[in-house]
Amino acid sequence: MKILITGSLGQLGSELAPALMKRYGENNVVLTDIKSIEEKPQSEQGLFFQLDCRDSQKLFEIVSKEKITRIYHLAALLSAVAESRPQEAWDININGLYSILEVARVHGCSVFTPSSIAAFGPNTPKDYTPQDTIQQPTSMYGVTKVAGELLCNYYFHKYGVDTRGVRYPGIISNVTMPGGGTTDYAVEIYYEAIKKKRYTCFLGGDTYLDMIYMPDAIKAAIDLMEANPAKLRHRNAFNVSAMSFSPEDLSAYIRKYIPQFEISYNIDPVRQALANSWPNMLEDYAARVEWGWDPEYDIDAMTSDMLEVLKNRGA
Ligand code: SER
What we know:
By secondary structure, this protein is an alpha/beta fold. Helix content is 43%, strand content 17%. α4 packs parallel to α5. The mean pLDDT is 95.
């Protein structure tokens, strides 16, 4: 097994990379990112190439030279940034994925591609959102995620490329900050709670969204790629959820540990509209049955861990 990661310096990549190295060996994981490594010295372990995933010539060279067998394709623009630069979001999210699928087709690699809760839209049932349901997103990010799911399924059925993916909720981590997402408040809030004991939230207090703690997000990416293909009725992409909460709910849990914590609101209309168009809570039965998805962290366990880690680090 030799793995290539795109977007390895991003929110998910920064933590998935060391987890994959631990599991499969440091020499079996090749890191790539559009940024150069100097910007992120802590990721200096492992083999690193600066790569724009749309540069298929360079991508083919790396995959062939390094004898890559599996690709974790994490490079993408998140929802709020995509909404501010929709043409660039289409180019990076779709043409980047296309070159990954092409190299996988030619070199026989398996591919993990994250989809998102953003692959749903205002016409989708909001509560217990089913695995197979209406997908008519109204954001460019969501459009690229649905198109990406379909493209990955196409490469599986047409060419037998082993494509798999999950629809990630908001990912909460204490290592790397997300960049330009709608669910980012649920990360920022912990840093501000420790530093200032108050947080001004850009989403309304009763906005419910699915969330997942990073250790579970990593577990999903590894377990799905190791799952027995004979059991997979779905491919791209599985609903996964670990918890659903609103900013008010999260504040109440933070207050259990920091009683003086206060939340106020200054709503960003762009991100509020994105959040309003997404489900409140996904139903993830298919992931549980087809590959044993079983998250470890709920909102309380996550909050206690986040605050402890950030406090110890002096964040
Ligand atoms: N966390 C992502 C975002 O907010 C959703 O996939 O953009």
